[in-house]
Write a structure and sequence with these properties.
By secondary structure, this protein is α/β, with parallel strands linked by helices. The protein folds into 2 domains: 157 residues, Rossmann fold, CATH 3.40.50; 67 residues, Hypothetical Protein Ta0175, Chain: A, domain 2 (Alpha-Beta Complex). The chain is built from 9 helices and 11 strands. The two termini are 33 Å apart. InterPro entries: HAD-like_sf, HAD-SF_hydro_IIB, HAD_sf, SPP-like_dom, Sucrose_Phosphatase.
Length: 245
Amino acid sequence: MQPATRKTRTPFFLATDLDNTLVGDEKSLLKLNELLKRKKVQLIYLTGRYWESARKVMSAYNLLPPAAVVTDVGVEIRFAPDFEPDPVWKSLMKQNWEPEKIKILLRNYRFLELKQLPHQERLAYRLIENRHNIEHRLSSTLKKHGLQARVIVSSGVDVDILPPLAGKGNALKYVQHKLGIPNQRILVCGDSGNDLDMLLLGLPGVVVSNAQPEVLEHCLPHTVYRASKPYAQGIMEALEKVNLY
């Protein structure tokens, strides 16, 4: 009689923003890295940075090798081991994306300062004057002129204009599907406005205590834990409290 084969358990995944979530306190980051290695947790990094900038952060802070990296607020996805841009996702990002028309439309908005990026897969602006409800106002303006795009405001000053299917939430769902990650085997971590759509997916999640007001004041699903500690400490707190792995 053949012995019963043990079913292999799906690895646990930590899907985390970089700046001011995972990165921000080097001492606690070292402790978290040790915990993740010991528990054999897989990593997915999701950041507003473009690829080369994200690589520099991963190198500078000796971050653990990830299974996937989502950059540019969900515009680009790269999978291990080669970390080339995923071609299917890349083609989706091109649909109805008209960056030149958007730049022309917004160039007379003096309260917006265009940031220089090495590509036009997204447009990034800095809000140099306070404007009430800027996300809704810009979205309405784009729609009025027949332009399909997402507007995401983070930290009160960073304005990202993305292809209509972009965003960390949609990107994470794509990664989750491609890697076959069940909902109960992932923890989503964030701190600012561009993390909201992945925190609103209904997956287990954590908001670190140093999060921006737009996240702390948002009505989040009951699946999201509000940590009492900042940065990597908050992630460790959530891992211990939720005990998912």
